[in-house]
Amino acid sequence: MEVIVCSAYQEMSVQAAHEVSKVLNTKPNAVLGLATGSTPLGLYKELVRLHKEEGLDFSQVTTFNLDEYVGLPDTHPQSYHYFMKQNFFQHINIPPQNVHIPSGTTRNHLAFCAWYERRITECGGIDLQLLGIGSDGHIAFNEPGSSLGSRTRIKTLAKETIQDNARFFEKKQDVPIYAITMGVGTILEARKLLLLASGKSKAAAVAAAIEGPVTSMITASALQLHPNSMIFMDKEAASQLKMRDYYQWIQDNKPGAPQPEP
Ligand code: PGA
Known about the structure:
It is built from eight helices and ten strands. It has helices spanning 9-26, 41-54, 80-87, 109-122, 159-165, 184-188, 203-211, 244-252; strands at residues 2-6, 31-34, 62-65, 67-69, 99-100, 128-131, 153-156, 178-181, 192-197, 229-234. Helix 1 crosses helix 2 (41-54).
């Protein structure tokens, strides 16, 4: 796990976007796993800037989103379909047929989830998966207790998540209680994982995920099992890490980086 503590949200967003653009520059037809939420907004903004100002090309890219609320149609302003269109897809040149987001309105969850998994495999697997982290330590909607081998499925949201997400809805009762989400096992199959965390409210979850045991009670801790994961965060999200000096030392002394003159 590579832990990168950035001075602020903006720097984190730009650095993380740079990792995405590196993947696209080496593999223009990469398969990206995408995340929603307030944390990746700055990253999407920077990717849109790179597209508009520096020609970053999405014409061959395929995407798979992590999750969607059950019961919200694509046009609902709080659906993740709507979020992705507003904040990313409508600003770049990705062909609409290359975009995959779990359906919030399917009547056959089992068949849909099986199809979603099959589609990821047919497209060659996910090259880079973006992730946020919940204050309860979840990745996607894999709430505490989700099997670390779980696959795409319907999941009941934790009360803490419903509370966290209530800010986006008029009333707390409007927050859906189910979602379709990729599983932890699905996520771990991506070739590279890039998790973003911002703000003090994530500090405890971030510390547990990075420095605590691997446990289904903090599904983000499953990143410890992945051979190629990066965790970008701002100072506030890093505030409960015990080994922070060491992570900085690693960043300052990367193998192959130019060394100061003796
Ligand atoms: P947030 O959500 O980016 O809106 O904080 C992250 C998550 O719950 O995964």
